[in-house]
Design a protein that fits this description.
Structural class of chain B: alpha/beta
Distance between the termini of chain A: 20 Å
Number of helices of chain A: 12
CATH class of chain B: Alpha Beta
Number of strands of chain B: 12
CATH topology of chain B: Rossmann fold
Shape of chain A: globular
Shape of chain B: globular
Oligomer: heterodimer
CATH superfamily of chain B: P-loop containing nucleotide triphosphate hydrolases
Strand content of chain A: 35-45%
Largest sheet of chain A: 11 strands, mixed
Number of helices of chain B: 8
Chain lengths: 485, 256
């Protein structure tokens, strides 16, 4: 590229549009982390004893990890050490004790969600979407609960589930991601404040797309939510989460855990549109998105499918994985990760083949612009008893301009010689020649960009529920829209 | 339609065009011939507005407007089409979608109705026949994995869909065997009307046996050194460019 790059470099400079702060009174835990903080959170949420015990065990384990200085360092990202005593671990909008309907939700809060384009009202019925919204640490409103409960489906905040169905939580919590799994999983287990809970009974096909929106508002707050989805035998659920945060100069930590459990013949489709504040173009501020997501295909012929569109966060560290335990089970991972400005993403998946005839499919699309750095890191492991395991992996990179980076780090561990693995990868670059070619056919640079990005991502977008595919397309366009022209 | 006056252009500080004059009217086909490095492709790129090329002096008027003042996409919307010597791959973008996006961008800028995928598909199928390409090509990603011949035919298809007023064809014949050359030439001829004009840039005379020009210009060292009718092409074919080439820096008389 001998010609000027200014045009390309400015493409990735689009401002973040969800960066406003909501002026709302919050119930905030004292800064810092010790056993008292955890007891404070647990008491605030009126939790059963087993929950507090589990949190404390997790906390003590986490302390040993801190002492051993064992934060994960293998990822291809760099950031200054995090001071865990300088974070607020719980922040809740001050409101009435118990919200019975949306009318009781603070109007300021509803306006926030409106600005984000999330209609919490009953109009959503038409769209067939049930929404649970998490503001800082607590769940604000869950719509459509009644309709869902007719089918025996439980879709509510984690806190409510803990009050209403402690048996289910006790049985499944930590069964896929134990608190000892990794540094951030341990931290989450100790301090998580809320999240979503979803239970689909045997044979039920969930009639709605279930949706959770996460929003970090309070400064210096960490968000630690925990999501648990259980799909009983022969059931089906499609679940989507969206995320955003205000613009702030300091970094904020988001360390979530998601656990999925699919029994015999059950299917869970989990989609994420992540648009946390990415920091400014010099890399100041932004969310550290350190998330552990894992599903277990526990039953025969079960299926778990992760689809993610990652456009935000200063740093993304995230590997939604599937343990293929049941025979004939299927795991899928479809990902679009965009890094621009100074964003860093180290993301991918793990497919652990345990049962026979298990199949997995990985489609990863990394887009880097500006000075973004994008790494695909994926593991395919075939255990000794996983006869006839199959994996197909495709990880592609698209570079915009010449100051960004793309890396691919696949790991393969095969302990059964009947396994069949395929791997494909390619890298392409959006350069001035390509844009000029499109311009010459009448397309503006932004339209050309959008066409190219959508062409690149279409295999993944196809996996999103239709309206969210539209949303994801729009989000990518917004994120890449520059000061061109 | 197009008037180029004393056009000077450079890339990376190197002067390539050193005073080009050319006038093209509707219904005419002009061939610009010249040896390698004479500035043929630069002329094509400057007219289309490729970034990186600096116009240091001169004017280009197209349909009464200052062409050089328009962005590349505005030129395209005004009816200027460039058939690329090396068409660019646009990975993952299907040709039919790419063409519909371009077509609709042009329609929109002219206040005409944009076509939905079904209606556009009908139009596209027609144009596929006009230029005689394999319809399956329109379902593939733009130029991705295309052979040299397919890329050139694809340029003709795009021209057929976008129906330019002024088509600049940069070596549409390069890299083609005799049969492919004939197909491409037939495609070009099928698109000639009394309303539009062609500026055909070529190194070799052979395509001009199929696409017969009204005027031939010899471009050497950034200047048009001779203009004439179609017989000029034949003369170059037998005698080469040698007699027009002068040591660099030495002034040549401007053509009348």
């Amino acid at each position: 590229m001998t010609t000027t790059n200014t045009e390309l470099n400015s493409i990735a400079a689009q401002e973040y549009r969800y960066g406003f702060v909501t002026d709302i009174e919050a119930d905030v835990a004292p800064k810092g982390l010790n056993e008292d903080t955890i007891r404070w959170i647990s008491a605030k949420k009126n939790e059963p004893q087993f929950m507090l015990d589990w949190r404390l065990k997790a906390f003590r384990h986490w302390e040993t990890l801190v002492e051993a200085d064992s934060t994960p360092t293998w990822a291809n990202v760099s950031y200054p050490p995090i001071d865990y005593q300088d974070i607020i671990y719980y922040s809740a909008p001050k409101a009435k004790e118990k919200l019975e309907s949306l009318d009781e939700v603070d109007p300021e809060l509803l306006r926030t969600y409106e600005k984000l384009g999330i209609p919490l009202d009953e109009q959503k019925r038409l769209a067939g979407v049930a929404v649970d919204a998490i503001f800082d640490s607590v769940s604000i409103a869950t719509t459509f609960r009644e309709e869902l409960s007719k089918h025996g489906i439980i879709f509510c905040s984690f806190s409510e589930a803990l009050q209403e169905r402690p048996d289910l939580i006790r049985k499944h919590l930590g069964s896929v991601v134990p608190y000892s799994d990794n540094f951030y999983a341990a931290l989450n287990a100790a301090v998580f404040s809320d999240g979503s809970f979803c239970y689909i009974p045997k044979g039920v096909r969930c009639p709605l797309e279930l949706t959770t929106y996460f929003r970090i508002n309070t400064a210096e707050t960490g968000q630690f939510e925990r999501t648990l989805i259980i799909a009983e035998e022969g059931s089906y659920v499609s679940y989507l989460e969206g995320c955003s945060a205000p613009m702030r100069d300091e970094n904020q930590l988001h360390a979530a855990v998601v656990e999925l459990i699919a029994h015999d013949n059950a299917e869970i489709k989990y989609s994420t549109i992540q648009n946390w504040y990415p920091g400014d173009r010099d890399g100041r501020g932004g969310i550290y998105n350190f998330v552990t997501k894992r599903g277990k295909c526990q039953g025969k012929n079960s299926k778990i499918s992760w689809t993610q569109v990652e456009t935000g966060s200063a740093i993304t560290w995230k590997y939604p994985s599937v343990i293929l335990q049941g025979d004939d089970s299927i795991g899928e991972f479809y990902s679009v990760a965009l890094t621009k400005g100074r964003q860093q993403a180290d993301t991918g998946t793990k497919m652990i083949h345990v049962g026979r005839n298990t199949r997995s499919r990985i489609i990863s699309k990394g887009i880097s612009g500006g000075r973004g750095n994008n790494t695909y890191r994926g593991l395919v492991r075939v255990m000794p008893k996983a006869d006839n395991a199959r994996n197909f992996t495709q990880c592609d990179s698209l570079l915009i301009g010449d100051q960004c980076g793309a890396h691919t780090t696949p790991y393969v561990e095969v302990r059964n010689n009947t396994a069949h693995l395929e791997h494909e990868a390619y890298t392409s670059r959006v350069d001035e020649d390509m844009l000029f070619y499109c311009n010459q056919r009448g397309l503006s640079t932004e339209d050309a960009q959008s066409l190219i990005i959508n062409g690149f991502c279409k295999e993944v977008f196809r996996k999103l529920p239709f309206e969210f595919a539209v949303e994801a397309t729009r989000l990518l366009d917004l994120n890449l829209e520059g000061t061109v022209g | 339609m197009l008037e180029i006056r004393d056009l000077h252009a450079s890339i990376d500080g190197v002067n390539i065009l050193k005073g080009v004059n050319l006038r093209i009217n509707a219904g005419e086909t002009h061939a610009v011939m010249g040896p390698n490095g004479s500035g043929k492709s630069t002329l094509a790129f400057v007219l289309a507005g490729k970034p990186g090329y600096a116009v240091t002096s001169g004017q280009v008027t197209y349909d009464g407007v200052d062409l050089l003042g328009l962005a590349p996409e505005e030129r395209a919307r005004a009816g200027v089409f460039l058939s690329f010597q090396h068409p660019v791959e646009v990975p993952g973008v299907r040709l039919d979608q790419f063409l519909r996006a371009g077509f609709n961008a042009l329609q929109k800028s002219r206040g005409a109705a944009e076509l939905d995928p079904l209606k556009f598909d009908r139009l596209l199928r027609q144009r596929v026949k006009t230029v005689n390409v394999d319809p399956a090509m329109t379902k593939r990603a733009v130029n991705e994995g295309f052979s040299g011949g397919e890329k050139k035919r694809n340029e003709m298809l795009q021209m057929a869909v976008l129906e330019p007023k002024l088509a600049i064809l940069d070596e549409p014949d390069s890299g083609l065997d005799v049969d492919a050359l004939r197909t491409v030439a037939q495609g070009i001829n099928g698109l000639r009307t009394t309303e539009n004009a062609l500026l055909l840039v070529t190194h070799y005379q052979r395509i001009l046996n199929h696409v017969v020009p009204d005027f031939v210009h010899v471009l050497v060292n950034g200047r048009i050194v001779k203009s004439g009718g179609k017989e000029l092409a034949l003369e170059i074919e037998s005698e080469g460019y040698d007699k027009y080439e002068q040591p660099r820096g030495e002034a040549l008389p401007s053509p009348a």
